[in-house]
Design goal:
This protein is of the alpha+beta class. Strands 6-7-8-3-9-10 form a six-stranded mixed β-sheet, sandwiched between helices. The protein has a four-stranded antiparallel β-sheet with strand order 2-1-4-5, with helices on one face. Strands 12-13-11-14 form a four-stranded antiparallel β-sheet.
Length: 666
Amino acid sequence: MLQAIGLTSTPRRDLPPLVDDLTFEARPGCVTALLGEPGSGKTTALRLMLELEPGRGITYFRGRPLHRIPHPGREVGVLLGDVPGHPSRTVRGQLRMLCAAAGVPASRADTLMEVVGIAGLRDQRLGSLSAGMDRRLGLAAALLADPCTLLLDEPAAGLQPRERAWLHALLRGHASLGGAVLFTTSDAKEAARSADRVVSIASGRLVADQEAADFARTRLRPRVAVRTPHAARLADVLGREARAAHRPVEIVEESGSRLSVYGSNCAEVGEAAFRHGVLVHQLADETGDAGAPVPPVPQARTGVGGAVRNEARVEVTAPVRAGAGTAAGPDGSAAPPDPRTDPRPTPTPTSGPAPTPAPGPASGPGLRAESASPAGSWPALAPEAQLRSADAVRPAHARSEPPLSVVRRVGGPLRPLRYELRRVFGTATPFLTAALVVAVSALTALVLARAGHTPRDRVLAAWPDLVPLPPAALGAGLLGALAYGEEYRYPALAADRGTVPRRLGLLTAKLGVCAALALVLGALAVTADAAALGLVFGRAPLGSPAEWIAPAASWAGLLVGCAWAGVLGSAVFRSASAGLAAVLAVPVLVVPLLRKVLEGPSAYPAAGFASRLRGLASSPLPAQADPYVLGALRVAAQPVGAALVLWLMVLLCAYGFTGLRGRVRW
């Protein structure tokens, strides 16, 4: 049960809020449509439910608000806008990354790719997907964690009728197994024929909350409902007379004995039937729309080796809206479901090694496909996908004995780390950054060595005096700034941040991975610089280092500090560019301010600090540790080091206030 109570967005200047005191519910086992014109506040309402927008009101998901659910991705499947992912990431890599975020096995990605019909696109880049395949990937991402509730924003926007039929068939299959589905649309016909309940809003306020049949009868355009045993003949007669009279008349065959005639009235239809001797059992003026029949889908048959051929047979039966998707019988009453065309998937036994499908696929209302191409344009479910479709979309609470590959959870403290590793190495960004940093660093080191006025340590670091940071530190800061880009940019990942421990675990994983990347990047840069200098100038610019521990520690601290500043900056300001600006703020703003505060001699020297510190230790430290303690103090006392420590503390406190604080409530 999804219950939205008093949702109200933040008021705008001299304008009413986009959503104003919106209250409704989406029941389990039903498909609910949130209907409204563009700009009526549908998307804002979904974002308020997911706590992605500041405002008032609260939404309960099976009795709990989202911020009280430890793992929201397992309770709510989200599709808002584009698919959450980097355009250069592959389809399979994207779903595996989301599996790690949701805490489900990586094999779940392969199962869902087959269910939604994109198994043939597993190696395609996200940026190259068509609109239909993008929607399929979005549905797979929403279903990965086996959620009970689905929240979808305009899932059928820009799709063809047969594509919409496939999508709504999958949604109905999820609802028929006990899940709650809420999708937004601006098409009243789509809401009437695809939903069980329609919630209409205008200017952010609730207009009506009706059953789909009541909505179709009271809110849509008028029609003439005809029931006759000669429906095809009467449709032909009405069409010929309309063309002869140049009148716009639309005729929809809803079943074998029912017609819906738009643009006419009972008198004209009755007179035409009388003139041509067509027997009529029912003739009535109504208001509603069951939608046009779905056109046949081009056939596609999968051959040897996965080759796709343009052959497949699809049987189409135009559905009649009868409350919750039941077909009308000959006498006008709801007929029992036909196992050949019933949209509700039959539960399959799950105790065996593999789920066994019930006779007949369950691909949607009035649509049956015998085979489909996984790479085609929205074909129906392929036979191998039908083996898993019932269990793949079935919510966990509706299963008596769930399949191992569907509901098994992968938890533990390493789950955020697995997600972060898949996120980082799922694209070529770290490799391209490392290559660019190494090239620029080696070239800069050669220029500094040729000039001959730069200390050896700065030559190896490729750090000129006029540049705020060396290339390796800038690269580490860039990788850190990109760490939180996807979580705040894409709502499906933002909703899965979950409770405070979940967010702290994710932050810890990001800090650890970015620190390791920064150290590797620094080691590569120094190695490349030393190799370039030795190759061009010999050993003269390098010399023999008298002390290398303090410079190495200083270098590692600088790189890790820049990476962490980028991570925390992007987490606080929710932008990768702001995270990079937080890195550059250290040498440009923080270091000069710190120098102004600390410049001048100290009144009391700190001589003998290492020995006094050794005396305070519970176990006496050896005297040989004094050089290391003094070296660490010298590193921390440097303006850049002190500025980095101070800036990281400020950013960490800011993250605590912005990222860990409770969301705005009543």
